[in-house]
């Protein structure tokens, strides 16, 4: 039986604001641990988050760059889950009413200069805050200790969710390469801060085991490795019910 791999990607890009999305705390990279987390970031009693206008402007600019529909009304909500580096117990994010919907990324053809480009649709573009960072490195904190750095708590992120339009490792990498170029040229994002969640599967089939991650230093090469590994793993597939 021939398989058709189907891939959609969720990409998180850090908006290059000088302060966090709901507080005035700084976002400078490389600061000493827990020196850029204020009362709002750690949700102390009585604090009130105030939305960073610059973050909204950047999100709108990106939406316009990819042909998305900018919504006149967008809503933030609490996404409740436990992370040890998320002291308030919830993340402020968007879902039902994101800042933008639709749009596309035009991916260049993969079969030479004359190959036609194809559009990868975007489902949604929404804003949210980042959590902190748990440090498990035994060389830094010891084998039985985990340290928490809250400097990243409240960093403004833009989540870009694609349609499941990608069909190969090469296409996934080409999509991200184009997306990275748009983020660098058409909107003021921190090009060094890009995180990725992938949702690979197979048409009409589902994986029997958990999603896997293939470690790689380079983001694009890592995506190619993840998708290629799933493409080879036909033996672990079972029909979806």
Describe the structure.
- It contains 4 helices and 13 strands.
- The protein is α+β, with helices and mostly antiparallel strands and 241 residues long.
- The protein has one domain.
- Strands 1, 2, 5, 6, 7, 10 and 11 form a 7-stranded antiparallel sheet that branches. A two-stranded antiparallel sheet has the order 3-4. A two-stranded antiparallel ribbon has the order 8-9.
- Helix 3 runs antiparallel to helix 4.
- The two termini are 18 Å apart.
At a glance:
The chain is an alpha+beta fold.
Tag the structure with descriptive keywords.
20% helix, 241 residues, single chain, globular, seven-stranded antiparallel beta sheet, alpha+beta, two-stranded antiparallel sheet
SSE string, helices as H and strands as E: EHEEEEEEEHEEHEEHE
* Poorly predicted spans: 200-217
Task: Count all strands and give the number.
Answer: 13
Number of domains: 1
Name the helicity range: 10-25%
Q: Report how far apart the termini are.
A: 18 Å
List the helices and strands and how they pair.
Elements: E1 5-15, H1 53-65, E2 69-70, E3 77-80, E4 90-93, E5 100-101, E6 104-107, E7 118-129, E8 133-135, H2 138-141, E9 147-149, E10 156-162, H3 169-185, E11 189-202, E12 205-207, H4 219-232, E13 237-239
Antiparallel strand pairs: 1-10, 1-11, 2-5, 3-4, 5-7, 6-7, 7-10, 8-9, 12-13
Helix pairs in contact: 3-4
